[in-house]
Amino acid sequence: MRGASKKKTNGAVLRVFLAFALIVSAALAARPSIERVFLDRMAADGAATLNIAVEGLNSTLERFEPLAKLIAERPILTQLLNDPENQGVKPFVNEQLRLTALTLGVSDVYLMDIGGTTIAASNYRKETSFVGRNYSYRPYFREALGGGLGRFFARGTTSGQRGYFFAAPVLDQTRIVGVLAIKFLSDPFEASWQGGGSEIIVTDRVGVVFMSSRSDWHFRTVAPIQDNDLDEIAATQQYPLDRLLPLDISVPDVTSGPDRVVLDAVDYVRNAAELKNVGWTAELLTPAAAARAQALSILAIIGLIALLLTLMAAVLLGRRARAREREDERRAAQEELERQVQHRTADLNAANERLLVEIDERRATEERLRTTQKELVQAGKLAALGQMSAALSHEINQPLAAVKSYAENAATFLDRNRVADARENVKRISKMADRMATLSGHLRNFARRPQETTGPVDLSLVLDDALELMAPRITKAGAIVDRAPGTCESAIVNGGRVRLQQVFVNLISNALDAMEGMAAPKIAITRTDLDGKIRISVVDSGSGLEVDAAKRAFDPFFTTKSPGKGLGLGLSISYNIVEDFGGRLTAKNNETGPGACFSVELVHLDAQDQGKVAAE
Fold this sequence. Notes:
Elements: H1 2-29, H2 31-64, H3 67-72, H4 75-82, H5 90-104, E1 108-113, E2 118-121, H6 139-145, E3 150-155, E4 162-172, E5 175-185, H7 187-193, E6 199-203, E7 209-212, H8 227-236, E8 249-250, E9 260-263, E10 266-275, E11 280-287, H9 289-321, H10 327-374, H11 388-415, H12 419-447, E12 455-458, H13 459-477, E13 480-483, E14 492-495, H14 497-514, E15 522-529, E16 533-540, H15 547-552, H16 570-580, E17 584-589, E18 596-603
Parallel strand pairs: 13-15
Antiparallel strand pairs: 1-2, 1-5, 3-4, 4-5, 6-7, 6-11, 8-9, 9-10, 10-11, 12-14, 15-16, 16-18, 17-18
């Protein structure tokens, strides 16, 4: 009886292990299908990731595309191109281009004459300055010189840095007199692509990898390059020819599933997208080994579960054979077994819940990334900084006309032997010359390159210079400037004379713009002595600031002026200059009447610094 029971039990155990063997065999047979599921999921995730990267590239290109044309509209650039050796204008243009590059977050901004020679650049202080270098061989220069918008991606022949170039013609009325170009680097994009487990490459129309998450793939090729394309690359110096070597690339022998490629002996799942506006192809390469590892993990889990179930069945069958003899032991063992099953089931349920939470977090993260990409800032409007040009020209032309008239009259008086009258005319000519020399001196001082250091500055002299520079615009606008007596007293503050002039010129210019078309425009300039600081306030009689404008007044590209009249960078640059001096620039509505009030707070230096006024 006991032998028959043992034989029956052994037969049942054998069937259980046979079932285990069948389950494992079926799982191994299903391995390719399981692996394909993970490869398909990998391809779907890769498509979403690549779409984010491509949207980032497209939005950046769209943001920077109009900037070259807007910067090229500055009248001061035309003035320098018409007189390249003007040392009164050239330093001012160099510094303005440097500040523009810093504000826009681009690598370089530079100005070329019609021969392709750079005459001003934002990097004029660096050893790798573009000034004096000729770039007529670049396609973007030729396209802009032809009247269009130039675009080009290349490695810089001066800096050695890869970047994208935009270029626009600089016009003197309808005549092209030069080209303005900007360059932004590709390094930030590549840095953001790294660390995600996948590789991203971007190739041009001839198959050269010019952007990649792996630096050793830069300038490698994915296909043979034709001789005429090599000639064009050499002529434009787009890439280093000695690095145009083919990648070790092949296609694996697979008949189904997502697109695959073998690169440098690594099997990748390939996602590709076209950037049609620029003729590029972006590819995301995800190692296929990860899908195989996931498939093996699933198979291992299936095997472990099958083994666990098999062992459980064997234990149960063994204990049934001893059920009658050891009823108490069987019950205790059964309870213990059920407890273990419940504990392990609870662990599996907890693991499943954690996995669901991780999946939800990943989806939320992807949604935030998409939202962030859609909210990238569209490049704003750039304002022409040469509003003073027309008024200053009028201010100089009037004395010149008077000088000519007095000179002709003096010659007539001398012919008639009226020496006294001739001498009076000569005195008037001298006064006119003094007036023009004073104005020219202020312009030369304002335009020259400032130092980076700060130091003692006489605030009253800075205000004198700023008002002198703006006098033609103030007169043309018919505005009254009410300057409080305290602003005429000597006050030594920490700053730089030229940069501080730039701040007050910008505030006075904005005040005039705010009162344009109004009757009896008035600007009030007041001084308030604070604890260790001096506050100079510029108050206009315009319509004042709206709530949103007051909050965003110093944001780059924010402007309330009509299109083409404002860049939205003047107050942002002024804010940064005052911050560099350890001060503060604020904006609010006038509390005692109509208009807006912009206040500059600067550090008031001790009396011992009175004799050290030298900072620019």
